[in-house]
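Lab notebook page, bench 4
Experiment: in silico fold of construct C2
Operator: M.H.
Input chain length: 198 residues
Purpose: comparison with the prior construct
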Amino acid sequence: MQILQQFAGINGVLYYTPQILEQAGVGILLSRLGLSSVSASLLVSSVIFTLQLPCILVAMRLMDVSGRRSLLLSTIPLLIASLLLLVLVNMVDFGAVAHAALSTVSVVVYMCCFVMGFGPIPSIICSEIFPTRVRGKCIAACSVTAWLCSIVVAFTLPLMQRAVGLSGVCGAYAFVCLVSLGFIFFLVPETKGAVMPP
């Protein structure tokens, strides 16, 4: 799950949100305020990161109410949809304002849904699924895997963006999210309230 989580592209999107939004033309949305496109993309990035906090609070409540697995199964399709919308707006000419608005909405939905489901839940499941006698080593292995994959994503996103464009990158991340959805549906158990062996 940690590998799929990272290859869903979150750290690439997090690190490069201002550049992605600037490329999407978000400056057009705030041009009446006299902001440059760089300033507008930084401002919108700040708003997006601020919107994540209430989503985290909602996720904390929903994890114990609806369960980890069901929260993943309900948020990952939204990740897929937001990434596919980014692919669409980068392939079809909707006009500058619509392109900027749809791209911004897609990034907001992607980030907010990620912090509600695929962001925290793999780490929680890792801490709940392993037997107590090996839990520490298994959690350490999961953390190392997540960080290594995060580094790969952070360094490959600019290369992929130059090679296949933003729509190609988002399409690849959407494919990983689709694989993740199948993996979780078929292989990941619900750990809410489960008692794991010692």
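Observations: The chain is about 80% helix and 0% strand. The two ends are 22 Å apart (CA to CA).
Next step: discuss at group meeting.
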